[in-house]
Write a structure and sequence with these properties.
The chain is mainly alpha-helical. 53% of the residues lie in helices and 0% in strands. Helix 4 packs across helix 5. The model has no long low-confidence stretch (mean pLDDT 97).
């Protein structure tokens, strides 16, 4: 179910879709309201304290794309959202 909802979002694959679902997100609208830093910290907590920082970059990209369906193609690449 999670991938059916989020799989078309840039940078989001099956694993990240499940992570978003575990954060309580059920729609693109929920994702658009998300805060990537808070989402990352909660995902890290759920994973037991360890999480690759790339997940944060994917969250930044995904939230931006959810807020703006016409997001610049260059910004649809998660690595564009690195620190």
């Amino acid at each position: 179910m999670a991938f059916a909802v989020f799989g078309h979002v840039p940078g989001v694959g099956k694993s990240i879709s499940v992570d978003l679902w575990e954060l309580g997100m059920r729609s693109i609208e929920d994702l658009a309201k998300g805060d990537p830093d808070t989402m990352f910290e909660e995902t890290r907590r759920l994973a037991g304290g360890s999480m690759d920082r790339c997940v944060l970059y994917v969250y930044r990209c995904a939230v931006a794309a959810a807020k703006n369906p016409d997001l610049d193609p260059a910004l649809r690449k998660w690595w564009t959202w690195k620190d």
